[in-house]
Design goal:
Shape of chain B: globular
Oligomer: heterodimer
Shape of chain A: globular
Number of strands of chain A: 5
Number of strands of chain B: 12
CATH architecture of the largest domain in chain B: 3-Layer(aba) Sandwich
Structural class of chain B: alpha/beta
Helix content of chain B: 25-40%
Strand content of chain A: under 5%
Radius of gyration of chain A: 26 Å
Largest interface: A-B, 59 and 52 residues
Helix content of chain A: 55-70%
Number of helices of chain B: 14
Strand content of chain B: 5-15%
Largest sheet of chain A: 2 strands, antiparallel
CATH class of the largest domain in chain B: Alpha Beta
Number of domains of chain B: 2
Order of helices and strands of chain B: HEHEHEHEEHEHHEHHHHEHEEEEHH
Structural class of chain A: mainly alpha
Low-confidence stretches of chain B: 1-22, 152-158, 217-234
Number of helices of chain A: 25
Mean pLDDT of chain B: 83
CATH topology of the largest domain in chain B: Alkaline Phosphatase, subunit A
Chain lengths: ~475, ~400
């Protein structure tokens, strides 16, 4: 079933990108595959060039200083209250009038705290990158890998560094080697906090012998289960425990100890479990941090990892039940290139299956919301409603409910269909006077639209209704 | 590879969801006469079936045309008589009462100059005041305001305004306007849901099933299809509440001594292709909600009601006959409804074209015999004292041949 060039171009934008903007279907119609590959070759591909964004270390320290100042202010306030109301003393004079209500407590509404401010600035930059991308293939890859190696802003002090994490770990390696991305992720403070490794202590380490606290297996297990080999593959509980021992000491510099480097990654030998460890049939001598690097490198090379990653990529981009031949080919490419993600990505684009699969997958909420903005040609001056839409649809930005990340299959997202209608309706009412639905339809959906959808949009009773119906149309929601 | 630069022409999204647009001055000439006129324009988007709102019960061809869907004086419920020829939809007791007291006027067989049948283009012509569809970014009401000499500015906000998630085109333009955000957004209309369900039923059974389950919509979905069932009345209360709150809030602002004087609202949902339900279904609910909105305006205006005109207009009418799905398709002429104490009302203004086949426009629609611009020009000229030359060139460009309708106001 050969699609005409415009439909092929639209398919590229829907399946691999973030949806068409005005002119983008025509712009890539001569060579959709080539356009996808060209986006991978762009200068600074995948990076966000925003000098105002903080490194994770700076963000962590700024937030720590903010929280410290708040703590001190609260302590000072409590001390002042205690001084003003000595126990058993006389009432203050202004309280003598019994009919007067007590004076209101001083209102403190400082607005969002520093972690939230940093989080929102990062979110805004990410949304802007998604709107500015010509096709959005690279952004989709960033979103995919960010979800694969997810952290959550809802945990501890991750909020202020989760945006920097994505830039420093995911964007930096999105077209690099999987092994480099893996090492960067597992040694980033955001991940070490999120999956509790920062406080994991080898039982026989110096710190372990001195304290009651000990090993935490969380990160080791999720690396094996989610990030590399995949669940129920080649590892055992013993492997999990030994691997957890290997990465004891992977933590961050305490803020009080070092105001300059506080919050940055460090390997702390005093927390590291001494001795050799055997993980999945291979013994690793204790070489401090190198022991963990070696295990991660071996995991990145493992065929089970190749298969896991290949299946996940194909499931995300192509089909909930991806064609086995496609998964096989991607896994082979992964192994043959030592996990070169650019080569694996090119193999995905080259695969005929990736273009022949029916457009059955439901867009994830983020793709759908950004797709509406791109189709309508809108840049929101305030990201609040965009973030709110993500929340309502169950995909709050950088806040997955579990380390597995947000689902790649369509089924869980079907539940939000009624919420999508409300959001489409509100969005369409807000922009309906600005955007001509006929133009938006022609530019963003026409090559893929059924005659029924075309009629529903063009015969709507008003512009806002036309836009809402277009955004809710199966051809707009599926990819 | 080159692309259209998205960023360069990207429109800023207005995130102030609801808007009340207010013109910051009083019309000076009217003030000099000791008047303080208010004008509220309500745009009904989707094309109101004028024959279902105001029925020509005295026309010998009426019953044959609409059969058991025709409003009649002995119907169930009976239509409300206006004169010896026309009767009002029974869902509009308030408009009927106002009409009987001389505070409502109905113009029938009226239309804008637009003669095609696209909602978007029809709405553009209606609200822009231009003779043809095309790039329009200002509305006739705003241009009328821009032409008025600003009088006092006491209180700071004696203005025009619009309530709705976005400002209707009719009030957009050069005249400065203020905005206000209503508490609630309009509910996702049953009409939108029904259209989406129908689309899903034809194109995506999975989405159809999910949406039906999530919204408990099985009944409504059937009613939107071909089997002629009446839609559920579910949501009627919501629609009534939204109409009444929007209109009542507008009136509260208009009534204030330091408030705006001129404004606009838009209500959606009038595109009744299937299961129209003029007497007890969907259209009856909408018409009843509109009647409630008029009553809310009257109540909230208090003393200012006697200086008020509410003008209710729609982009075009609907087919004279009922179609195969108990609805009506896009047509041409329809009604314009006016209410307010400033009117010299109590009459139906109509050069009635008749309903015989040969008399119908294109053999299907009520033929337009009154240019809607004449009505609007008459209101602007006699109520707000907009200059006739300005009306013919700037407010409704190229409309010199369309004379302002005289005698609509008590104040000539």
């Amino acid at each position: 079933m050969a699609l005409d060039p415009k439909a092929q171009a639209a398919l590229a934008l829907y399946r691999f990108g973030l949806g068409p903007r005005a002119g983008s279907i025509a712009g890539i119609a001569s060579d959709p595959r080539g356009a996808l590959l060209a986006e991978l070759d762009g200068a600074g591909a995948g990076r966000i060039g925003n000098a105002d964004l903080l490194t994770s270390g700076t963000a962590a320290r700024v937030a720590f200083a903010f929280q410290q100042a708040q703590r001190e202010a609260r302590q000072a306030e409590r001390a002042a209250q205690q001084a003003a109301a000595p126990s058993g003393g006389a009432s203050p004079p202004q309280m003598n009038d019994q009919s007067a209500p007590p004076p209101p407590a001083p209102v403190r509404n400082p607005g969002p705290g520093m972690p939230q401010q940093i989080y929102l600035a990062e979110a805004k930059a990410r949304i802007q990158a998604a709107l500015d991308a010509e096709i959005g293939f690279l952004e989709r890859l960033v979103w995919f890998w960010s979800n694969h190696f997810c952290v959550s802003a809802d945990k501890g002090n991750v909020r202020q560094i989760c945006g920097a994490y994505e830039r420093e770990v995911i964007r930096a390696h999105v077209l690099g080697r999987f092994s480099d991305m893996l090492l960067a992720a597992e040694s980033h403070p955001a991940m070490l906090i999120y999956l509790d490794n920062a406080r994991s202590i080898g039982p026989d380490s110096i710190a372990g012998l001195r304290q009651k606290r000990g090993l935490n297996e969380n990160l080791a297990r999720e690396i094996l289960e989610l990030h590399t080999l995949g669940v129920r593959t080649v590892y055992t509980q013993e492997d999990v425990t030994r691997f957890a021992n290997v990465i004891t000491g992977w933590t961050f510099v305490p803020f009080r100890q070092d105001p300059v480097r506080g919050g940055e990654f460090e390997f702390n030998p005093r927390m590291h479990q001494p001795g050799a460890q055997t993980v999945i049939g291979r013994s690793y001598p204790d070489a401090g941090m190198q022991q963990g690097r070696d295990v991660l490198a071996a995991l990145a090379r493992h065929p089970a990892t190749a298969k896991h990653v290949a299946a996940k990529l194909a499931r995300h981009f192509v089909a909930d039940e991806p064609p086995p031949a496609l998964v096989e080919r991607l896994a082979k490419r992964f192994l043959a290139t030592q996990g070169d993600l650019k080569e694996v990505t090119k193999a995905l684009v080259a695969a005929p299956e990736a273009w022949e699969a029916p457009r059955a997958k439901l867009k994830r909420p983020g793709e759908w919301v950004i797709g509406m903005l791109r189709a309508a040609g809108i840049t929101p001056p305030d990201i609040g409603p965009v973030m709110q839409a993500h929340n309502l649809l169950g995909e709050p930005l950088w806040r997955p409910s579990a380390p597995k990340g947000f689902a790649d299959e369509s089924a869980p997202w079907l539940d939000g269909l009624a919420q999508r209608l409300d959001i489409a309706n509100q969005f369409a009412r807000r922009v309906g006077a600005e955007a001509d639905p006929r133009e938006v339809f022609e530019q963003a959906l026409a090559p893929l639209a059924s005659s029924e959808t075309r009629q529903a949009v063009l015969r709507a009773e008003s512009r806002p209704q036309a836009l809402a119906l277009m955004f809710m149309a199966p051809e707009f929601q599926r990819r | 590879m080159t692309f259209n630069r998205h960023a360069a022409n990207r429109r800023e999204l207005l995130l102030a969801s609801g808007t009340l647009f207010a013109w910051a001055y009083l019309p000076k000439v009217a003030r000099a006469e000791g008047r303080d006129p208010r004008l509220l324009v309500i745009v009904l988007r989707g094309a109101l079936d004028g024959l279902a709102a105001v029925a020509p019960v005295g026309d010998p061809d009426w019953l044959a045309l609409r059969g058991d869907k025709a409003l009649t004086l002995d119907g169930k419920p009976p239509a409300l008589p206006l004169d010896s020829f026309f009767a009002l939809n029974p869902a509009m007791p308030n408009l009927h009462r106002l009409y009987k007291s001389g505070a409502a006027t109905i113009v029938h067989a009226t239309a804008t100059p637009y003669r095609e049948r696209s909602h978007f283009d029809g709405q553009d012509v209606l609200e822009s005041g231009l003779a043809k569809p095309g790039a329009a970014d200002t509305g006739w009401l705003n241009r009328a305001l821009a032409s008025l000499q600003p009088g006092d500015r006491a209180g700071g906000s004696r203005d025009a305004f619009a309530i709705g998630p976005i400002a209707p085109l009719v009030v957009r333009g050069p005249a400065p306007v203020l905005s206000w955000t209503p508490r609630r957004l309009p509910p996702t209309g049953d009409d939108t849901v029904m259209r989406l369900m129908e689309l899903y039923h034809h194109t995506d059974p999975v989405l159809a099933r999910v949406l039906e389950e999530r919204m408990g919509l099985a009944t409504i979905a059937r009613a939107g299809g071909m089997d002629g069932e009446q839609p559920q009345a579910a949501g009627a209360g919501q629609v009534r509440a939204y109409f009444a709150e929007s209109a009542g809030t507008a009136a509260k602002f208009l009534a204030r001594a330091d408030g705006p004087r001129i404004g606009a609202l838009a209500f959606d949902g009038w595109d009744t292709h299937a299961a129209e339900g003029a007497m007890s279904g969907r259209l009856a609910i909408l018409i009843g909600a509109l009647d409630g909105a008029i009553a809310a305006i009257e109540t909230e205006m208090r003393d200012a009601w006697r200086e008020t005109v509410v003008a209710i207009v729609t982009e075009f009418g609907r087919t004279a006959r009922i179609n195969g799905t108990d609805g009506t398709d896009h047509g041409t002429a329809t009604v314009a409804l006016m209410a307010g104490g400033a009117l010299k009302g109590g009459r139906v203004v109509a050069d009635w074209p008749g309903l015989k086949l040969a008399k119908l426009h294109d053999g299907r629609d009520l033929k337009p015999t009154t240019d809607l611009r004449a009505v609007l020009k008459g209101l602007l000229k006699d109520h707000l004292r907009v200059d006739a030359g300005v009306l013919a060139t700037k407010v409704f460009p190229d409309s010199a041949a369309v004379k302002p309708m005289a005698g609509l106001l008590q104040q000539a």
